[in-house]
Every structure is written in C-alpha cells, then in structure tokens.
Amino acid sequence: MSLVVKDLIVDHGAIRAISGVSFTVETGKLSAVIGANGAGKSTLLRTLSGLNKATEGTAHWGDHNLLHGKPESHVRQGVSHVSEGKSVVAELTVEENLDLGALWRRNKKEAAETKQQVIDLFPRLGERLEQRADTLSGGERQMLAIGRALMSKPKLLLLDEPSLGLAPLVIEQIFQTIRGIVDAMNLTVVLVEQNAMGALKIADSAVVLNLGRVAISGSAADLIADPAVRTAYLGY
C-alpha cells in the first residue's frame, strides 16, 4: 500500500491553501513535508485525515479514498493523525489516554499487547501511567500523543509538528523514536515539520511546500545536498 496524492486543491473560502499538490509515499517510508509558516503543511495533513474538505484532486491510501468519509472511517482503515498540540486529553491519565486510542478495537488482548509495545517504545510513559496528562512535560506529552495514535494499530501515521516547543535534546529523542517506529513497525509516515533539517535527517523522501504548491520534492538526502534548498529552508 502506498499513499498517493494527485493534483490536490484545498480552498479556505476565497483563499487557496493547497494548489495542485502531488506526491507519493511508499509503504514503510517516512516522508517529510517542510516549508515556511503558511505554506499549507498542516492543511495538507488535516485534509488527508478527513478534518478538512478538498476542493479537487485525489488522495488514496491503497484502495481507501482519503477524501471521502469521516476521520473515524480513516482510523479503521489504518490511518492515524497526531495534530499539533491537541492530541491528548489533559484531564485523563496517561493510561486512560492510551486506552482511548484503542477504543474501537474489539480484540482487547491485542490492544493490551499494543499498549505494552507503546510502553516499551516510551518507557517514561510506563512510569507515569497513573499521572494526568496535564502534569507531563512537553516532551512526555508528545510521546503520549504518538503513543495514543499507535494504539489504533495504524499503517499510515500523519504527524503534525511533533517538535513544536520542545527542547533540542527532547526533539532529537522524539525524531529518533519516530524513525525507530517506522523501521520496527513498517509504518508509513508523513511528518510535517518547521524543524526542516531535523525532519530531513530522519526522512526517506521530502516535499517542500511554498504557498500551497510543491516547490521541490525528492529524496531527503538530495534535498539536504541541494544548495538552493539549504539556503531557502535550512538556513545555511
């Protein structure tokens, strides 16, 4: 299964947020979507997860049409979205948040096994299962958001700005964990990031958005080596 987006257009009223965007992400690969604020990165993810409506174009995860149906139907097809800063319930404990991620799964034994997998990935969460989410540090909360998304056993993970507001050492840890998840679980990941260099270092491929259009795309290694990309987006 691959994620295939073709000629995607998304309008917010009179404003065209996404304009003719096309790209493909192969199974088990991580694609970074980078670009300045207002480039359309978060809108792209929200459209793929069913939170925004597309104006034109197509987007498929295997045979599943991502532009039709509600977000819950996408989750059941193995698509999970971690939105920027909004993916944990502050009043619930760490364990309750994780269980919420597996709410629709009928096999409770498998859900319990997935929870143990998540705790193995994020040992700090295992130490804080009874703590409320609003008592966690920023990094721990981001781990919980990703962990909760993994509880639905996704095959396609859409991650929006996981490094936002975190300390450099924590960002490094989060990025390495994301790369580890891709490799260990054969997950396909679309990672939207302001931290362009950090994202490119762990990505297989990348898409640079500029004012809603694809400015350049290709392998992450090629983009890092491209002087024009380095100057415009990586700051050196």
From TrEMBL:
It holds the Pfam family ABC_tran. InterPro entries: AAA+_ATPase, ABC_transporter-like_ATP-bd, ABC_transporter-like_CS, BCAA_Transport_ATP-bd_LivF, P-loop_NTPase. GO terms for biological process: L-amino acid transport. Gene3D superfamilies: P-loop containing nucleotide triphosphate hydrolases. Keywords: Amino-acid transport, ATP-binding, Nucleotide-binding, Transport. It comes from the Bacteria. This is Branched-chain amino acid transport system ATP-binding protein. It comes from Candidatus Planktophila sulfonica.
